[in-house]
Amino acid sequence: MAEKSKNSVWSAGLVYGAILGAVSVIISVIFYILGKTMSDAEKYVSMGVMVVLLVYFLYLYRQERLGGYIKYGSLIGAGAVISAVAGLISAAYFIVFIKYIDPSMQNLIDEKSLQKMLEQLAKREIYPSQTEIDDMLEKTKMFRSAGFMAIGSVINITLIGTLISLIVGIFLKKESKDPFASVEEKQ
Q: How many domains does the chain have?
């Protein structure tokens, strides 16, 4: 029974997800120190590291915990759990960061949101007045809050991780040639 819990997708997901979440936090801290928070470089580095680590962790899960064999659906499930745990850790860091470490970061988020909103309106040749802009900002204030953004982050990271797992699972799946392997696995 101890062997079964060691191989559990939940135990693997917690360990690997915690590592992925910690690495994501470290990347965020590094870019914050460099003054490049919310830059395109941070997005690309974070996504690249997530892809590489998720692929590596799924491979490790298959090799070290399941003896080299795993079904496609199990890979997707493991990727979703790993990503969800990493997303929860990243979201917790984000809330702590915005609330306690650098509350002025909320202003940067507001500025970036306003800039994107105005760019989208300009594409449709809509140029709002300052009072209309202030009204739009007030109406979208809830969506820019730390809590709402953290929830969105967990959902996004989980979805992205699941999509990566869908693709990677095609190449990493390796089913046992033993016809009774799935029966033994369930006992």
A: 1
